[in-house]
Design goal:
By secondary structure, this protein is of the alpha/beta class. The protein folds into two domains: 247 residues, QueA-like (3-Layer(aba) Sandwich), CATH 3.40.1780; 91 residues, Beta Barrel (Thrombin, subunit H), CATH 2.40.10.240. A hairpin with a 3-residue loop joins β1 and β2.
Length: 363
């Protein structure tokens, strides 16, 4: 006998009607020019402000933990002899690509990616993206994912920076532009942490001025790394969310961040995740070890209502897709009815949604 789907576990209960014109297609003129919706856990909307007002809504002594992973221009395009286009999105983060020597000065590595074309490439097919980069299809999996043997000459990061496109999410219905190289990237992304195929979008709003105002109020800043993967694009495909299995993502909690979180928790100061990816890193690392300490590994944690948060007390986040694992996560933190009510408020008040949209502070 299968388990019955109760309303709180039904995927349909996390859906809502979103007018398409509220899906932000371009970033705001200023990074910190977005609007901010303030939501109190278990209670509801507490107010509206601008993102520049964020320090006014955080308690003194709070600790913000942000994801410093950098987005790779991981989307490659190739023309087939027939004139058709093949698109490849690299999903294996660069720091975790294990390469080996090929022939004639070439390097090669087995990686995961999304392959898209009018006619899906078959195992054995070879696709060239540039004179110094190509792939051979090894096997095709579900939902467009494929295992391929990537082969290249030189430094792989440099090649992607030269010919790759920023992997804007599919709901941004335009080609990427040169401006996206800057705006679809946080200002604190680290080059040595390049590996995400989507931006940790809650961090896109931060400017040096906002950071300085936070510091002046005694609000601390720490960083983790979580390489945002395929799950950003992967919808929840089950009717009962208890049956959903999250993709795994690579995470790193450095010693200095673990120390800062431990100190804040010990002193009773609240820990706020900057974005769902930072929340996944912190809670996922705790789930791996049962304590707050430095961790490097993978997490497949799925946070849904009923989950007891071990590390974070609040979150800064953007507005997410209906029925997505991210909406489910913020519902676990703030309360399902609170989040659905806050989203309804945001739609009525014409907040901008998704990656280049406005922000929500859950406190």
């Amino acid at each position: 006998m299968g388990q019955s789907v109760v309303s709180g576990d039904s995927l349909a209960s996390y859906s809502f009607e979103l007018p398409e014109e509220l899906i932000a297609q371009e970033p705001p003129e200023r990074r910190d020019g977005s609007r901010l919706l303030v939501v109190d856990k278990g209670r509801g909307v507490a107010g509206e402000a601008l993102f520049t007002d964020l320090p006014d809504f955080l308690p003194e002594g709070a600790l913000l933990v942000a994801n410093n992973s950098k987005v790779l221009p991981a989307r490659l395009l190739a023309k087939k002899p027939t004139g058709g286009v093949v698109e490849f999105l690299l999903l294996t983060p660069l720091p975790f690509i294990v390469s080996e020597d090929g022939e004639g000065g070439w390097r090669q590595a087995l990686v995961q990616g999304l392959l898209r074309a009018a006619k899906k490439p078959k195992p054995g097919d070879i696709i060239a993206f540039a004179q110094d980069l190509g792939l051979r299809v090894v096997s095709n999996g579900e939902f467009g994912q494929s295992t391929v043997m990537l082969h290249w000459q030189g430094e792989l990061r440099t090649i992607f920076e030269r010919i790759g496109h920023m992997p804007l999410p599919p709901y941004i219905r335009r080609p990427d532009s040169p401006a996206d190289r800057d705006r679809y990237q946080t200002l604190y992304a680290r080059a040595d942490k390049q590996g995400s195929v989507a931006a940790p979008t809650a961090g896109l709003h931060f400017t040096p001025d906002v950071r300085a105002r936070l510091a002046a109020k005694g609000i601390e800043w720490a960083e983790v790394s979580l390489h945002v993967g395929y799950g950003t694009f992967s919808p929840v495909r089950v009717k009962d969310i208890r049956d959903h299995r999250m993709h795994e993502e690579f995470l790193e909690i450095p010693p200095e961040t673990a120390d800062m979180v431990l100190r804040a928790k010990g002193e009773g100061r609240p820990v706020f995740a900057v974005g769902t990816t930072s929340a996944r890193a912190l809670e996922g690392a705790y789930a791996l070890t049962g304590e707050i300490r430095p961790v490097t590994g993978k997490t497949g944690i799925f946070i849904r209502p009923g989950y007891t948060f071990a590390v974070i007390d609040g979150m800064l986040t953007n507005f997410h897709l209906p029925g997505s694992s991210l909406v489910i996560m913020v519902a676990a933190l703030a309360g399902k009815s609170v989040i659905l009510s806050a989203y309804a408020h945001a739609i009525r008040r014409r907040f901008r949604f998704f990656s280049y949209g406005d922000a929500m502070l859950i406190r």
